[in-house]
Amino acid sequence: MLMTPLTPPTAEGGALRAQSVRRPVGEPVTLDGTVLRVDPDTGAGLPGNPYYASADPNARRIIATGLRNPFRMTTRPGTSELWVGDVGWGTWEEVNRIAVGDDATAENFGWPCYEGAARQGGYDSANLNLCEALYAEGDAARTAPYYAYNHSAKVVPTDPCPTGSSSIAGRLPTGSRACRTSAIPRTRYRKRCSLRASAPSSRRRRGVCAA
Ligand SMILES: [Ca+2]
Ligand SMILES: [Ca+2]
Question: Helical H runs in the chain?
Fold first, then answer.
């Protein structure tokens, strides 16, 4: 039986499963930390997916990887863009953009080797093979967040929300008490505050406290 290495430098378990598409050839690919594009009837990966030629059925399903907790996402109307909110760990919350979901490029957003724009310090200092190989390939090997913010800081100086305890979440419905228009993405976790992004084409953001 093939065992998942759990200790440095060859560790591949835990959060490192989000990089399982980069494991040595022949080792299993998991679906942790990924975005999938599948046939809704069979669950099989679709033609056009980046790893569709792979012998691994999980790899064939994956169109993006290296995410930590991407539990909210949405499409940009009229485009193939997929916008993904990724909940941060130690410091950084991320808004990630998959420019084209059905092309040959599998976006790798870097978790856990990266968090936000930079290397994740703990994983970097552990000198794990999976992360060190990714670092060695430079910026071309991973897709940086479209936007990232420190969850212990105010998003903008005029943000009325308290700091800390935030996490990137999802889309607000139009007419919500917490936000006066639809928006992607938002934060609302414990501190009862929302972050509104005006539109994907704009990076303007404004904090709005929930009623
Ligand atoms: Ca893509
Ligand atoms: Ca290192």
Answer: 57-61, 121-125, 129-136
